[in-house]
Amino acid sequence: MGSNEQETSNDNESTIDAECNENDTEITNHNLSNPATPSTSTASSTRRKRQANEEIAKTISLIGKKLEKPDDEYDAIGKNVAPKLRNMTATQQGIAEKLISESVESAV
């Protein structure tokens, strides 16, 4: 390799090194200007957990209210028909469901 080629190669390496150093400085400066403070992160995490727990509590309360509601005559009809439907073939189930649906529709 000639002297000019070596100088060109060294110049290219210097340019690449300088660009890398500039990028490192930009990344470091960005990280310093936007630090993730543990207290902010912890507070945010705690807030999200509290909101999730409140939603869970609301859902459990709603389920409890539904379970406390006594069955009415329509629930009794469903409980009477359900085991019969379970013992039918798929074709029989389809016919029975269609007839039940049509009966309810015509009564309305």
From TrEMBL:
Biased composition (Low complexity): 35-45
Location of region: Disordered: 1-54
Name of this chain's protein: Uncharacterized protein
Compositionally skewed regions (Acidic residues) per UniProt: 8-25
